[in-house]
Amino acid sequence: MTHIGKLYNIAAGLNAQRLIEDVADIAEAQCLIVSQIDSPVDQPQAIEVSVRGSGRASELGNEITATVADELSRLESVTEELTRGALAVGRWPLRQDR
């Protein structure tokens, strides 16, 4: 059983963290993930990402999409990471091993 709202909230934070850390020219990132009733957890209804950074940040669509897709593919492991204490919910950065 999964609390999808909490899981997506954590996943959105992980996406934002990874975009800031891994994509050049992004200074700030926000991510919103929306669920749909009866859909698989790894298939959200929508993902919205906004970034701020240098003028080049607006040209990074493909890199942002790839990064978010990769992080979404790891969604199943988020519950395991929470159980192990590898995610520091409520603190930044969320994932301590990066």
Fraction in beta strands: 15-25%
List the strand order in the largest sheet: 1-2
CATH class: Alpha Beta
Distance between the amino and carboxyl termini: 28 Å
What oligomeric state is this? Answer: single chain
Overall pLDDT level: 84
Helix and strand run? HEEHH
Keywords: Plasmid
Pfam families: AdoMet_Synthase (PF01941)
InterPro entries: AdoMet_synthase_2_family, AdoMet_synthase_3
Describe the structure.
It holds the Pfam family AdoMet_Synthase. InterPro entries: AdoMet_synthase_2_family, AdoMet_synthase_3. Keywords: Plasmid. This protein has helices spanning 4-22, 61-73, 75-84, and strands at 26-34, 46-53. It is globular. It has one domain (4-84): S-adenosylmethionine synthetase, C-terminal domain (GMP Synthetase, Chain A, domain 3). The chain has three helices and two strands; from the N terminus they run H-E-E-H-H. By secondary structure, it is of the alpha+beta class. The mean pLDDT is 84. The protein has a two-stranded antiparallel ribbon.
